[in-house]
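Progress narrative, Year 2. Work on SIR2 family protein from [Clostridium] leptum DSM 753 advanced from sequence curation to structure prediction during this period.
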Amino acid sequence: MISQEQLIRNFSVMENGEVDFFLGAGASVNSGIPTGGDLIWFFKREIYCIENHISTEKFKDLKLPSTQKLLQDYFDKKGGYPPKYASNEYSFYFQECYNSCIARKRFIESKVTRHNPSLGYLCLADMMIENKVKRVWTTNFDALTETAINIINPQQELLICSSTNSDSIRNFNPTYPSVCKLHGDFRYDNLQNTEDELQKLESTLQEHWLHCLTNRGMIVIGYSGNDESIMILDILCKRTLSSSFKYLQLSKVKESIHSILLLISPKKMVLHAIFSLLLAR
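Result:
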């Protein structure tokens, strides 16, 4: 374990574009966007209240232990539902709550639009404009990185790569900063939310990711590891990348994701959770 100060010093001497960022849902919390964990309880409440003809107003605060216990006990008693904290909880309850693909898309749109980027996103955007960071990878559907860049410099060129748009990968130009959407872009694409959809993460994007990381480190922010599709990369990394590294860590992530992080860095360094405090502002 090292300090944040040590990690920042390491990052400050890295060359431009030598480190990519990977953003999970936790990076967007302070911009007002719920995490996957928050949405799981939202889905459970929706299903429970409709099935029992109860107003959702009765359970406004989904963080209350008593509310969570009531909801979880209900689904545990019914049977056929994943246990609490299972890796497929999000995808299962999302599909159970909204079984229409278009309904899921509209739901995501309602949650990620009209939000302002936090200070951390503005800092990241500035680093991208200055070419310190060339590429951001994300499982998020929001456009906070793009919005932050537009706020600072509306004329800045930015490429969007998407798992559901193969042309965006084939036409990738490393000259410009880019945001790579691993689950699709809600503004243009079909989204990947359910278990089957997550398992179909486009192989060309996986290959593109591994190729891009061949000469780079990676900074991971707000990602818990509860993502079935990203786990596919574990196999690919073991086949193609060296496991000789120096691993710098500030905060804990799910153990299952470590096997990926410990392999992705031919530069022999994986930087983990740098600027997590900035992104929380």
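Strands lie at 19-23, 135-138, 159-162, 178-181, 217-221, 246-248, 269-271. The radius of gyration is 19 Å.
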